[in-house]
Amino acid sequence: MASFRYEGQRINYTEFGGGPALVSDARGKRGRTARSSSAGERPVILIHGLLLSQTMDHRLAEDLAARGNRAITIDLLGHGASHRPRDMWRYSMSAFARQVVALMDHLEIEQAAVMGTSLGANTALEVASLAPERLRAMVLEMPVLDNGLLACAVTFTPMLVALTFGEPIMKVVQLGAKAVPRRLLPHYGNVLLDLIRQDPGPSAAVLQGLFFGRVAPHRSERRTFTTPALVIGHQRDPVHPFSDAGMLAKELPNSRLLEASSLFELRLTPERLSGEIAGFLDEAWAQTPKRGAQANGARRRARAAKPA
């Protein structure tokens, strides 16, 4: 696992496939070798869900790397092995998008496909708002938009209260979770248990920051995103309703909708969906990028930089 600095904080990431190998010299310093010319030209950044870590995407990253992509997973600030400050102002969807762009700058990636799940999907939309010229394609799994907001409030408000006001109790629960040997659980069992293994204070700060920020770019702005997009949703999930995925697919002018059989299909029986994702990425990299995206991105960043 490698890392870079963002606003004084450490952000961790992992590369799979044709990325530059990390080597150490005699003094222990780490440097980069040359990238593979084939997979290095097809970077895809995978963004995890809320309070989860990049390990949830490692198996998918391995699969996409085996299909010729340079897959990169990231722990956003406040998640996984990255720094987890307790300042709620550090956490927002737009801040997470800036971290993804900073990762691309760190790796000297001019353009990448970005795939996100839940919080990660909304972060990818923010990247499309911030820097559309840096996006080759988007894979948006289980976006959280208008129809899922009430269920999110009902689901995460008790968690926020428990993490904030019940922190001493949650620390005891954390110690119990840490005592469970990782080898006794399957991969995704550890992914879920890591929710409890984390220090509860920073997790509360993440939730607080997200509660008071915008969930996603407004629908009027989303309709201007021309980046090719694959939207993935499934039925019977109030936090990620299929109606949100369908709405987003209709809003994005260059998108298509893919229905998963369940919340767990991509993780437990991934063959069909990972094949669809890989095929979509093949198509996206084969297309000639549309002109004007770079100018649009520069104008948006200029507007964002103006003082309020």
Give an overview in words.
By secondary structure, the protein is α/β, with parallel strands linked by helices. The protein has a single domain, classed as Alpha/Beta hydrolase fold, catalytic domain (Rossmann fold), CATH 3.40.50. It is 44% helix and 17% strand. It is built from twelve helices and ten strands. The protein has helices at 58-66, 93-106, 119-130, 149-165, 167-178, 187-197, 200-211, 219-222, 242-251, 265-268, 271-286, 293-305, and strands spanning 2-6, 9-16, 22-24, 30-32, 43-47, 70-74, 112-117, 135-141, 229-233, 255-259. Strands 1-2-6-5-7-8-9-10 form an eight-stranded mixed beta sheet, with helices on both faces. The protein has a two-stranded antiparallel sheet with strand order 3-4. β7 (112-117), α3 (119-130) and β8 form a beta-alpha-beta unit. α2 packs across α3 and α4 (149-165) packs antiparallel against α7. The longest helix is centred in the middle third of the chain and has 17 residues, at 149-165. The protein starts with a strand and ends with a helix.
